[in-house]
Every structure is written in C-alpha cells, then in structure tokens.
C-alpha cells in the first residue's frame, strides 16, 4: 500500500504548489483539468454497473444551468448554489434514468443520448429562462471575505478543495463492500446479483443519480469560472472527449479515468499546433486503445504487478509444477 | 401448510408446454429432488419458481405468500434462493468478497454509511458471517483467492456459499454436481447433507446425477415432458415402471 500512499502524497504536494510554478495560462488549464477529473470520475461510477451513458455531459450542463439560474433569478451566492445545483443535476439524472432502466447495453447507450439531447434542446429552444442557443452570461464569481476568486490561483484552490472532497466521497462509495461492490457485482453477473436479492434497477438508479450529482458539481465549478455557458459546452463533442478519457485510462480501477483525463489533457495541449488534425489524432488514439489496450492505461499497472510477482515467485525455488497466477486484477484496487 | 406450495403451474413457450399443470409441495426441513430426462422441464420449473420466468398460469406460494408474480430479487429477499447450473460467480472478486457482496440484503449500508464509515461495525459483522459461511462450505482457506482462479469444484461450492450468504430458508440447487469429478461430487453431496443436518435447511434439488439424487433426497419428483409422472422415496422411484420407461436408454439411471 505504501507506494500508492507515497504517490498520492507526491501528487498532493504537486497540486498545492503547481499554481506558483506555472504561468497564469496553465493555472486556467489546471482548473479545467480538475473539473474534468471530477467529471470523469463521476462518469466511472455510472459505468461500474455496466451502464455506458451518453448524457453525462448534459448532466454536468444541468448543474451549470442550475447554478446560473440560482445566481441570476434568486441572487443566491455560490456557496448555497453549489450543493443545490448538484442536487438539481441529480433530480434531472433521476428523471432521465427512469425510462432508461428498461434498457441496457447498446439500448441504454443510444437511449441516453436521445434523452440527453432532449434536455439539451430545451436549453436551446427556451430563451426564457435558458437564453437559447447563446446561453447564459454574467454568472458571478464566487465571493468569500476578501478573497477575490476572479483571479486564477484562488479559484484553482477553491476547485481543488471541492474536487478532492468529491473524489474522496466517490472513492468511499467505490470501496464500500455493500454499495460499490454491489454495483460491480451487477456488472459482472446481473442474474446472480438478482438471485441474492439485489434490486438491480435501484442500484443502477443510485449509481446514475450519484454520478449526476457530481457531474453537476463539476458543472457549477465550470460555470462560475467561465462566467458564461451555452448549450454547445455540453454537446456530444464534449461527451466524446469524456468517453476517450475513460477509454484511455480504463474504468476498472478508481484511478483509471483520472489518469486518462490527465494524460489526454496534456496531449490536447501539446497538439495545439496541429489544431486541424486534432480530431484525427484523438480518433486514432481511441482506436489504438480499443484494439491494443482495451483495459486502458491502468491495465499497465496490473500487468507490471503480475509480471513482478511471477518473477518473484519463480526466482527462489524455481517450482516447475506451480502455475503462474494471473494478474491480481480486483476492481477498485 | 407446506413451505413451498406449487399449484397447477404451467409455462408455455409458443405452443410448447415446458411445464404442464404441475403441482408440488415441499415441507419444511425436507430435501426434495426433481429429476427427469433431458428437456423434461426441470430448469424451466426452477426458473419459474425463482422468478426468472413468469408462469403462464398457476400459483406458487412460499411461506404463505404468493410469489408467482414477483421478480427474482424480491423472491430472494423472502428467503427463496437459488443457485445456477452454470458457474455463476463474481469472477473478479476474491472468494470472501463474493460472499460479502451477496449479504447486501442483511446489512444495507446506504450511501451515507459508505462515505462516513458510520457502518463500520455492520461491515465487520458481515465479514464475520461471511467467514462462517466459507468455513461451513470448506473454503475458508481460499478466502483471499480470486474467484476466477479456483478449481471447478471450489467454484461450484462458492456458488452455494453465495446463495447461503443471502440467508435462505429454502435453497434451490440447480445441478450442483454438474461437471464435477467423483471426489468433488462426494464432497458436494456431503455438503448438501450437512445443510440439512446442521443448518436445518429445506432444499429443492434438480439433478442429473442419479447417485447424488438417490443419496441425498428423501422425496423425489419425476418430470417428463413438463408433467409429473411419479413421486415418492428413492426406492419406490427407482422401481416405478413409468420412470424406467421415461429413462429408457439413459444408461446413467442403471448406476
């Protein structure tokens, strides 16, 4: 366990010192990176039951629109609207997933796209209150005492705290033997899960709603940073990026999607000079991973570990009869 | 009143009656065997009782409650739990985790409990019970092994442990010794007997292997073409001319 702890401590130190080491431009990128980390991690929770949704980004949008409406119509501040908008996204999530529970696999995938577009198009069509295709502007910056969150560094730390807290909650849910494990069990063998009394629809709905809540939180953080949102922010393009992140990282472990977001964000930044070629590049990366590394980057870790343990078990006695054990690839490791 | 009362149950697939107005009752504490040649409707009957399939007609009453229109997870929650003919496991979990996750009904954690550790003692109690079940089944030594790495016999035993984790009052075993070697079969037969003698479990057993059925069941129901053709103790059944006729050519019955 200590290598993981050490790595986490190192990442934490890096996260805290980062805004003082890089330019303001990169701090802005780091803010978006943190927000996307939460988006990807919340998406993973939904996928643990086997439901690959195509409307997760729309649920992020629901959080963003909710906080914009709360700020502009009610005039409530960021700190109140952060949890409220998250709840609003969860409610939208529930109403979206309710009809979808009758479907699974490919049906769920396509169905979620349809209901997601339905929600998104209401923002396009209803100028009042959503602002139509041009969206909503003038979303206020959060305020707290004398701290001015207009500047990148304070907002970075605000985002960091909210995102780390959210990730910790998602991590706890994932590790809970009677919650996260039940969701994974549904994915592994739905029929068996039902035979021991698991109400599959209930757990799928819980996973989807909880994922929606944290996607909504990510949406709130994004809306208050951008100051303006429009329906385009949450369309299928962004959703495809989200899918690429989690495919590149893998979804079997908690860390996979996070690794995916970080790596792909760097590639995204470095490929700025190749602007026109970017969709081709990202498509190529997606295909590469689907064909040659379907487990994602996280699978490199388990492969390395099994190679190491096979080496270790072979070296002392060189037992010819002992079969080498496959990778200890427990989900949530 | 019997623990499980099946009255006039039929299941049609198109024009085919896989189960044809079948009545059956299982008393508390009994080990009841259901046998029949291939395609006799045993597995369909099993799926109907466990709620995986809805019956076309008839009623199933478990412990005084009508369960014939309930879904499989609700039926399991009432204490009527099945195992599978196939190797049904949560393959990527350790043996212990397989049993623990199957106990979710008996220790709902909830999201808040999961996040804020409010349910630590609950999880510990669950783990204790899961280890007891593994000890009963004889898998305590393999608790940390990954389920997919177990030998076939142990995988089937784990399937029974998973069902026990749901704390059933009536356990339905679907061909528990299918594909096992003689040693594994003997071990599983012993386990089934101990389920009754030590835990007082009521068992409904579908099995192909005659030796196992004759060895553990007190009452046997014989199906053919979805209908009940005989019922009684092992000796009476093995001498029943209708049963012998149904099995004619099936050499394993002679064993």
Quick summary:
With 333 residues, chain A is mostly helical. Chain A is built from 14 helices and two strands.
Secondary structure blueprint with pairings:
The complex is a heterodimer of chains A (333) and B (255).
Chain A: H1 2-21, H2 24-47, H3 56-74, H4 78-100, H5 106-125, H6 127-130, E1 143-144, E2 147-148, H7 152-175, H8 180-188, H9 190-195, H10 200-226, H11 236-249, H12 256-270, H13 278-292, H14 298-314
Antiparallel strand pairs in A: 1-2
Chain B: E1 4-13, E2 16-26, E3 31-35, H1 42-50, E4 57-62, E5 65-66, H2 72-77, E6 80-82, H3 95-101, H4 110-116, H5 120-137, H6 152-165, E7 170-174, H7 182-199, E8 202-206, H8 210-216, E9 219-224, E10 227-232, H9 234-239, H10 241-246
Parallel strand pairs in B: 3-8, 3-9, 6-7, 7-8
Antiparallel strand pairs in B: 1-2, 1-4, 4-5, 9-10
Describe the model.
The complex is a heterodimer of chains A (333) and B (255). With 333 residues, chain A is mainly alpha-helical. Chain A has two domains: 212 residues, no CATH class; 81 residues, no CATH class. Helix content of chain A is 71%, strand content 1%. Chain A is built from 14 helices and two strands; from the N terminus they run ααααααββαααααααα. In chain A, strands 1-2 form a two-stranded antiparallel sheet. In chain A, helix 1 packs antiparallel against helix 7, helix 2 runs antiparallel to helix 10 and helix 3 packs parallel to helix 5. Chain B folds into two domains: 167 residues, P-loop containing nucleotide triphosphate hydrolases (Rossmann fold), CATH 3.40.50.300; 73 residues, no CATH class. Chain B is α/β, with parallel strands linked by helices and 255 residues long. The longest helix of chain B is centred in the middle third of the chain and has 18 residues. In chain B, strand 7, helix 7 and strand 8 form a beta-alpha-beta unit. Chain B is built from ten helices and ten strands. The mean pLDDT of chain B is 88. Chain B is globular and about 60 Å long. A six-stranded mixed beta sheet of chain B has the order 6-7-8-3-9-10, with helices on both faces. The chains are: A mainly alpha (333), B alpha/beta (255). At the A-B interface, helix 7, helix 8, helix 9 and helix 10 of A face helix 2, helix 3, helix 4, helix 5 and helix 6 of B.
């Amino acid at each position: 366990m200590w290598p993981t702890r050490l790595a986490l401590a190192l990442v934490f130190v890096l996260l805290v010192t980062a805004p003082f080491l890089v330019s303001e431009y990169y701090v802005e990128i780091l803010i978006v990176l943190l927000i996307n980390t939460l988006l990807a991690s919340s998406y993973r929770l939904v996928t643990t039951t086997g439901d690959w949704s195509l409307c997760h980004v729309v649920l992020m949008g629901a959080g963003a629109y909710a906080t914009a409406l709360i700020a502009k119509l009610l005039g409530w501040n960021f700190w109140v609207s952060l949890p409220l908008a998250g709840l609003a996204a969860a409610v939208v999530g529930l109403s979206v997933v309710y009809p979808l529970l009758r479907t699974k696999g490919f049906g769920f995938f396509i169905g979620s796209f349809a209901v997601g577009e339905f929600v998104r198009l209401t923002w396009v069509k209803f100028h009042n209150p959503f602002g139509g295709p041009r969206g909503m502007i003038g979303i206020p910056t959060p305020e707290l005492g004398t701290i001015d969150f207009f500047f990148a560094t304070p907002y970075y730390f605000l985002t960091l705290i909210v995102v780390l807290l959210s990730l910790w909650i998602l991590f706890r849910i994932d590790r809970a033997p009677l919650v996260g494990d039940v969701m994974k069990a549904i994915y592994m063998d739905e029929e068996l899960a039902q035979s021991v009394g698991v109400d599959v629809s209930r757990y799928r709905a819980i996973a989807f709603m909880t994922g929606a809540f944290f996607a909504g939180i990510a949406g709130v953080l994004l809306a208050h940073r951008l100051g303006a949102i429009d329906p385009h922010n949450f369309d299928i393009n962004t959703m495809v990026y989200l899918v690429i992140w989690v495919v590149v990282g893998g979804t079997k472990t908690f860390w996979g999607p996070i690794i995916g977001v970080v790596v792909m964000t760097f590639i995204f930044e470095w490929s700025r000079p190749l602007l026109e070629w970017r969709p081709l590049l990202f498509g190529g990366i997606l295909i590469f991973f689907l064909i040659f590394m379907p487990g994602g980057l996280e699978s490199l870790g388990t492969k390395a570990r099994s190679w190491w343990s096979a080496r270790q078990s072979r070296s002392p006695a060189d037992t010819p009869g002992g079969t080498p054990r496959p990778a200890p690839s427990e989900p949530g490791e | 009143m019997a623990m499980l009362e099946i009255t006039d149950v039929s299941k049609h697939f198109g024009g085919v009656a896989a189960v044809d107005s079948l009545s059956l009752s299982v008393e508390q504490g009994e080990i009841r065997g259901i046998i029949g040649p291939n395609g006799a409707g045993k597995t369909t009957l099993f799926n109907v009782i466990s709620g995986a399939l809805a019956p076309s007609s008839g009623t199933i009453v478990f412990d005084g409650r009508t369960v014939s229109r309930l879904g499989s997870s609700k039926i399991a929650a009432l204490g009527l739990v099945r195992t599978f003919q196939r190797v049904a496991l949560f393959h990527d979990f350790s043996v212990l985790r397989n049993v623990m996750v199957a106990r979710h009904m008996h220790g709902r954690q909830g999201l808040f409990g999961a996040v804020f550790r409010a349910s630590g003692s609950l999880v510990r109690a669950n783990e204790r019970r899961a280890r007891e079940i593994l000890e009963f089944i004889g898998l305590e030594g393999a608790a940390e092994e990954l389920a997919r790495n177990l030998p076939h016999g142990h995988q089937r035993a784990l399937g029974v442990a998973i069902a026990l984790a749901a704390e059933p009052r009536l356990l339905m075993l679907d061909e528990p010794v299918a594909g096992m070697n003689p040693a594994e079969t003997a071990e599983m037969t012993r386990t089934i007997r101990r389920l009754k003698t030590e835990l007082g479990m009521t068992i409904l057993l579908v099995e192909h292997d005659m030796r196992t059925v004759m060895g553990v069941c007190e009452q046997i129901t014989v199906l053919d073409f979805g209908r009940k053709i005989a019922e009684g103790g092992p000796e009476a059944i093995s001498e029943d001319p209708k049963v012998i006729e149904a099995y004619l050519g099936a050499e394993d019955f002679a064993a």
